[in-house]
Amino acid sequence: MGLLALRRYVPYMRPYVFLVVVFGVSQLGGLAAAASIPKVIQSIIDGPITHGDLGQLVEMSGLLLAIGALEFVLIVMRRHFAGVASLGMETDLRNDFYAHLQSLQVSFHDNWQSGQLLSRAIADISTIRRFVGFGLIWFGQIFVTFAVVLVLMLLLDWQLALVVVFFMLPIAVFSTIFHTRYKVIARRLQDMTGDLTTTIEEMATGVRIIKAFGRTPLMQRRFEQQARQIQETSLEGIKARANLWTAINFLPNLSLVAVLLLGGLNVVQGRLTIGGLVAFMTYIFMLTWPMDALGWVLSMSEECQTASQRLNEVFDSRPEISDRPRARSLDRSTGRLEFRAVGFKYPRSDEWVLRDFNLVVEPGETVGLVGRTGSGKTTLAYLVPRLYDVTEGHVLLDGVDVRDILLRSLRSHIGFAFEDPILFSASVHENLVMGRPFDSDQELKRAIEVAQAGFVWDLPWGLETRVGEQGYTLSGGQRQRLALARAVLGSPPVLVLDDPLSSVDVHTEAMIEESLARVLDGVTGLLVVHRPSTLALADRVALIDGGTIVDVGAHADLMRTNSLYRALLSQEYDEALA
Q: Is beta strand 354-361 parallel, antiparallel or unpaired with respect to 392-397?
């Protein structure tokens, strides 16, 4: 049941204990007011109406009106405070979910569809909030109403009360059948929603490719097929709920007929007054709405249970890359990097990408990494800021294993520019800063100048111009220059650049290299080189093949002595770099 699935999320209600208490009091008060109405009606029928006392009739009618008004106020309070508490819980839970996603290693996100994570972060958390804010209220309301009404019925006429109980017993059977069937439907429906969200996300981010290759009809058919599957599964759920609701709603009608016949007989025989019969039937009517809501609550409970299971699948994924218990902060760094017997293979793979890799980059030195495609150059760069952890061996910064340095401290000393520049749907300024501390606007301007990103001053609102999702309102070269400016901002002692000039023209590349040469002076640089012209920035070059270093030296020396190195560099760059 959804109640059991919610045990993990009960702590999220603790900040709202006061609201929950007020909600509980108002719920019980409202139920007490509602339960007293049939007794007042019985007193009116058996008293003023039977005896023709008009004055007392007006007084008791006023009492009935006052009770109704009190019930109205308590219902408003109940719904308001329950809504406030559940929305607070939803916000806190969503914040923690997002923070947990941020804490998980890159390999986790490599293996999960973004649409599945989106559907969990939005739809599933909202499902839990709806059950807490509405379904759980009605579950409590139904339980307490049944208990209170049953007691009042027993006090009024125990025989008629047993008749009502007899007709309500099949509810347990119907609920069990519904639980077995609907939990499968609910899980399948929520998984399909995640897949559909992935399709929409892929369409939005890949719209240029879809249109360029004329694949719009194909994507449309794929979307319609998934939407149709969701429709069919939703109809299965509707059918299951309809069957349950029909059966449950039929039971009060049967009990009403039985009570009317048996109660009428008791009235005729003088064992029950007319007012008592009316009061008893009013109690049955009080059960009609809870019975009707029971099917809705049970379906919402199953959806909540499924949503909780889907959230647990993410929350139960523990960060594999996290701070060790004795990890320490690194206040200052000279920038000395060492790769000592490093071996690495990606999760769920038996193939070694790097093996027995040894390299030392001295403070202030720039080393270029050259190798075939798939030789492990980019993977090696990812190991420095611990986007991945080594499978064996050690990566050391200033002689300290990077796993023994607090992640936030480690990454504050490293500037990173990816080959594929990623920008966020935010302003240029927000994309550049990304939370990295810097001393002054002059430093920001310097980073822009180094990256030859002066085009930002010509944008409609300068640095405050929003670049759109993934920065697609800018050209590829402009995105790459902003990513490079982001990497050098704050003058980190270590710069890891994964082919940061692949999308710029030759003229801009030359200007950026000239500026970078000044920035790299006194800074430890690790350059993943795909374009030979970038080698002009390197003091030494490490040639990687088969996941290990086969040669290290100056570019000119490697050109003379290593045939593989010569083969990897095109003839047009040979003359420029010799």
A: unpaired
First to last CA, the chain: 73
For the ranges 210-214, 388-392, 531-535, the maximum mean pLDDT occurs at 388-392
Question: Could you say which DSSP state residue 46 is in?
Answer: I
CA distances from 158 to 150, 155, 558 (A): 9, 7, 100
Q: In what helix (H) or strand (E) does residue 545 lie, and over which residues does it extend?
A: strand 540-545
State how far the Cα of 243 lies from the Cα of 189, in Å rounded to an integer.
19
Residue given tokens 């007709």 in the structure block: 167
Give CA separation, 273 vs 151, 263, 270, 278, 283, in Å.
19, 9, 7, 9, 15
| Coil, helix or strand at residue 412 | helix
Q: How open is the CA angle 539-542-544, to the nearest 5 degrees?
A: 160
Count of residues making up the chain: 578
Other CB atoms closer than 10 Å to residue 328's CB: what's the count?
12
Q: Based on the number of CB atoms within 10 Å of its own CB, is 437 exposed (0-12), middle (13-18) or buried (19 or more)?
A: exposed
Cα 421–chain centre separation: 24
The Cβ-side half-sphere exposure at 77, using a 13 Å CA radius, reads 19
554-558 LR contacts (CB < 8 Å, sep 24+): 555/368
Instruction: Give the pairing type, strands 494-498 and 354-361.
Output: unpaired
pLDDT of 318-335, one tens digit each?
Answer: 888 888 888 898 888 888
Amino acid at 59: E
Phi, psi (rounded to 5 degrees) for 356: 55, 50
DSSP string across 95-156: HHHHHHHHHS-HHHHHTS-HHHHHHIIIIIHHHHHHIIIIIHHHHHHHHHHHHHHHHHHHHH
Are 19 and 84 a contacting pair, CB within 8 Å? yes
Give the residue carrying structure tokens 């039937």: 281
Average pLDDT value for residue range 488-514: 77
Alpha-carbon distance of 60 to 2, in angstroms, equals 43
CB atoms < 10 A from the CB of 235, how many?
11
Q: What is the pLDDT of residue 116?
A: 86
CB 438 within 8 A of CB 444: yes
What is the Cα–Cα distance from 518 to 128, expressed in whole angstroms? 55
Q: What are phi and psi of 130, to 5 degrees?
A: -65, -40
As a whole number of angstroms, the distance between CA 226 and CA 534 comes to 47
Q: Which of 90, 87, 76, 89 is nearest to 22 (CA)?
A: 76
Report the half-sphere exposure of 258 (CA within 13 A, side-chain side).
17
Report the distance separating Cα 260 and Cα 254, nearest Å.
Answer: 10
